[in-house]
Every structure is written in structure tokens, then in C-alpha cells.
Design a protein that fits this description.
alpha+beta; 66 residues; 41% helix; Arc Repressor Mutant, subunit A
Length: 66
């Protein structure tokens, strides 16, 4: 039996994994972090985004009409 977490069970995401989850590019994720729109934590020299912060960011997005 494997105890490896499934990608949906992650607590922390890399910038690349966050970009994939949000269907955007890495530079967009870095821009969101720089603008304080997406919170992150630092582990050593790496940035990680908590799943709860990704969910909170998505929840605050407002639908746009055309």
C-alpha cells in the first residue's frame, strides 16, 4: 500500500503546480504573489502556496460579463 499523497491531497504547491491548477502561467502566479493577491510561504529559497490560499484567491474572484 502506498502512502504517497495524490496531487489533490497536497497542502503546499509549487509556483508551477499552482499555475497549472489555475490554468495560467508561472509569471502570472509570481505577479499575483508580488501584488499580495496570492499569499505564499517560503521554505528555504523556495516559495510554496498553501491550498487554502489558492482556494481563498479563487473564491474572491468576481465573474465578468461580456
Amino acid at each position: 500500500m502506498s502512502t504517497v499523497a495524490k496531487p489533490t491531497d497536497r497542502v503546499l504547491y509549487t509556483v508551477e503546480a499552482t499555475a497549472e491548477l489555475l490554468s495560467c502561467g508561472r509569471s502570472t502566479v509570481y505577479g499575483l504573489m508580488t501584488a499580495d493577491a496570492l499569499s505564499f510561504v517560503k521554505l528555504g529559497h523556495s516559495r510554496r502556496i498553501r491550498r487554502a490560499d489558492i482556494d481563498a484567491f479563487v473564491a474572491q474572484l468576481q465573474p465578468q460579463s461580456i
